Amino acid sequence: MKNTQITIILVALSFLLILGFSVQTIAGETYKMGLSLAITGPTSDAGNPYSKGAEDYVKYVNDEKLLGDDKLVCFIRDDAYKTETTKRNLEDFLDEDIVFYLNYSTGSTMALKQDFEEEKIPVLPASFHAGNLIDSNYIFLPIASYSSQAVGLAEYVAANHKGSGKPKVALFLHPSAFGRGPLGDVKKAIDVGLGIDLVEVVEHGKDLDNTAMLKRLKSKGVQYVISQTVQPPVATMLKGAQSLGMIASTYGEAGKITFLGCHYAGGPDLVGLAGSAAENYYWTTSYKLMTAKGPGTDAQFALAKRYGRDDKLANSPNYTNGIMVVQVAVEAMRRAKSKGKKVTRASLYEEMLAMNGYNAYYPLTTVGPVTFSKDDREGVDTLQLYVAKDGVFHGVGLPFVSEYVQKIK
What we know:
- By secondary structure, this protein is α/β, with parallel strands linked by helices.
- It has helices at 2-27, 44-63, 83-95, 106-111, 113-119, 146-160, 177-191, 211-219, 231-243, 268-274, 295-306, 311-314, 317-338, 345-353, 403-408; strands spanning 30-37, 71-78, 100-103, 123-125, 141-143, 168-173, 197-203, 224-228, 258-261, 282-285, 378-380, 383-389, 392-400.
């Protein structure tokens, strides 16, 4: 009798083990990603909405079963814009066997290049610094680099200047690799025929008074200032220019200065910082703004509402940015799965490199397709120009690809 009971128990245990295995198989795989960024500290005005965009899209992927029965997990950690903290976060993520990594700052992306190479893990940073791609195989830029953006703005200035002679331009740059990056490429574009006169390059400090700088630029005949930095110093400069009566009320207004900026140097939050001084500020990015109605923006509003986000967050281009990088990673996973591949770092890297031509990816959060290859890991090449009118950024003309960026590549 005792032997019979033991046999029944063993059979029951075997059945439970088989059942547990079957349930696990049906539940699918779990794919892990990591995201380290500045939710607090410097540039948290961009990092915070970025983190919420990534978080919400991961929820959406799982809720809507975009990966079938498989589940996506994204570990999100604050690094307060400190490279040493970013490195510790990455090490923790690697211990979790992540297959894809989302980084943030230029400094940490540059510092961790060798780690990415050793781990052979595909990386999408929030930094669009072209230098990220040098001596790297695994870093991919989500959209056009800061260099491409600055050249695109300079090209727009040259093409639309109505005064006599070449337009006189100054660059207003962040004193870092992030800020200085575009300078060399703007000069290269000038060398191959871009018709602007680069009068001065200003690396801003933490000054709250730009009066002397602005007067100096005006005395040199500067008509356009292109900014590659973050929003606060741009807001300070614009307020100073407004108080001096220097801001052009229309593009290229004679005797005034038209101000323009790259991705992190503009956007809706700039209006909150600069107020009316941001009026007529021209700005470029590869992301769609919520003022551009259509399926992509409708979907973003719906996503924000679904997960309880307020209107300010829903309208942030950095919320869009966070959504988009997860979209790209998920698309690589989906493509690997559709080919019967196991989702690994290697298979995702292969799918990223194959994302071009007929295989380009259209995420609807950007104004053009995402394309990558072995020789080109700069994502969306297309730019959209926006201008602030009555406190809101609106699109100017159609999305464009810079002619001179193609010439200097």
